[in-house]
Design brief:
The chain has 215 residues and is α/β, with parallel strands linked by helices. Helix content is 53%, strand content 13%. It is built from 11 helices and 6 strands. It has a 6-stranded parallel beta sheet, with helices on both faces. Helix 4 links the parallel strand 4 and strand 5. The protein starts with a strand and ends in a 6-residue tail after the last helix.
């Protein structure tokens, strides 16, 4: 079993690595500190499973998962999170992620989750399984104003929202995404207009509410 670990905290990655390497025949073939690094590393190493925190800088775990699943449909993803909600689990399932473990349950559930995903089965932590049994995945969660706005953004726009909310300038966004500064500024203007936002602080609040970034 070849595994990539993605988490922005060194101590968390170390703990996850020790936990996973207790299993004979398992190999951690790479570690990433940002969502964008996780995508590049997964494409480079083609692991069986990616274990990734949902709250990743530069590119959040949800968007990174979409890119990994698109590029590597045979690579499974176990998402780690500090919390759980109907909306969050719905988004994760829609992104093609078939494993979800709360960090508080990692010592108990992570190895089992990776083992299941390695056989292309699903694994969801107990609380998530209960939500799914209640049938929330059979319907789209109730969409409020914030969710409606979020759903109107493209994946690229959500990437740009995260970068801007993390404090990057249009020039820095252009460098990260390998686009021109003019294109980055155009994207920024279109996003602000579409979301009816008027300042960076409003954009940050929007990103937090919609779980694009965590604070």
């Amino acid at each position: 079993m070849r595994i990539v670990i993605a988490d922005d905290h060194d101590v968390v990655r170390t703990g996850l690595r020790h936990l996973l390497l207790e299993r004979k025949g398992w190999e951690v073939c790479g570690e990433a500190k940002t969502g964008r690094e996780a995508v590049a590393l997964a494409i480079q190493t083609k692991p069986d499973v990616v274990v990734m925190d949902i709250a990743m800088p530069d590119l959040n775990g949800l968007e990174a998962a979409k890119q990994i699943r698109k590029a590597l449909p045979n690579t499974e993803i176990v998402m780690l999170s500090l919390h759980v909600s109907d909306e969050l689990v719905y988004e994760i399932v829609q992104a093609g992620v078939r494993g979800y473990v709360l960090k508080s349950d990692a010592n108990r559930d992570l190895v089992t989750a990776v083992e299941a995903l390695g056989m292309h089965r699903t694994f969801f932590t107990t609380k998530v399984s209960e939500m799914m049994l209640d049938g929330f995945c059979d319907r789209k969660p109730k969409v409020g104003v914030e969710n409606a706005n979020r759903d109107r953004l493209t994946n690229r726009q959500r990437e740009i929202v995260q970068l801007l909310a993390e404090g990057k300038s249009s020039k820095e966004v252009a460098v990260v995404l390998n686009i021109s500064v003019k294109t980055a500024e155009t994207h920024r203007a279109n996003i602000m207009r579409r979301l009816e936002l008027h300042s960076v602080s409003e954009l940050v609040r929007y990103a937090v509410k919609n779980q694009i970034i965590e604070v």
